[in-house]
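Researcher: Structure prediction, please.
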Amino acid sequence: MAEERVDKWLWAMRVFKTRTIATEACKKGRVSIGGVAVKPSRCIKEGDVIDVKKPPITYSFRVLKVTGNRLGAKLVPEYLENVTAPEQYELLEMTRISGFVDRRKGLGRPTKRDSRELSRFKEESYTADDFYLDWEDE
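Model: Predicted structure follows.
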């Protein structure tokens, strides 16, 4: 059975742009297998589930095949299966939607577009007629 370093595999599967970034993520405890943070040199094998924390969500990948060579994007699905929970993607969507409401520190002043979207968001008001609940008719 083939084995490969976890940092090299994550780079080869295009989870990280460079192998250095993958190694740093492992050192910072953002990569785990079975809930345990792993070192960059940890060997993985087929069937392992790797969790990668990329704030605000945690991605989960199942290893289908092991390779150390960087692959083209079209070949990646043959080597890994994305088993990330749907709740994580909902969290990502909520963060994206609320991104202009609570700006993170260091992003500077809002652009004109951000200001327009914020004012449009604040002006939207909903009345009881805007919602239909099927249990109201009973």
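Model: The helical segments are 6-12, 19-27, 86-97, 112-123.
Researcher: Thanks, that helps.
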